[in-house]
């Protein structure tokens, strides 16, 4: 997902919803193989990180994990690289 769409997706209603939908679409296209959709998951996490940076850790979106879980997931992804 292009970076220039990050601002648009952060401001979507609900925030980051387009990226959450992209994960569902990817999973459906790939016989629900999570391994084939890691780019879509990463795009959602990037959006959620930008959302929390903009609106604070008390903000919420049904499309985003809680800030502490998001930080854990991002750390796990960094360690896996």
From TrEMBL:
Keyword field: Disulfide bond, Mitochondrion
The record's region (Disordered) falls at 56-81
Q: What residue ranges are annotated as transmembrane?
A: none
Q: Which residues form the signal peptide?
A: none
Gene3D superfamilies referenced in this protein's UniProt entry, alphabetically: CytochromE C oxidase copper chaperone (1.10.287.1130)
Annotated compartments: Mitochondrion intermembrane space
The family annotation for this protein states: Belongs to the CMC4 family.
The identity of this protein, by name, is Cx9C motif-containing protein 4, mitochondrial
């Amino acid at each position: 997902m292009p970076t220039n769409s990050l601002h648009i997706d952060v401001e979507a209603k609900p925030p980051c919803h387009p990226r959450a939908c992209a994960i569902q679409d990817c999973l459906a296209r790939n016989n629900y193989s999570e391994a084939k959709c890691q780019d879509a998951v990463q795009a959602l996490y990037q959006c959620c990180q930008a959302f929390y940076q903009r609106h604070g850790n008390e903000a919420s979106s049904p499309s985003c994990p809680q800030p502490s879980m998001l930080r854990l997931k991002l750390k796990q992804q960094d360690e896996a690289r």
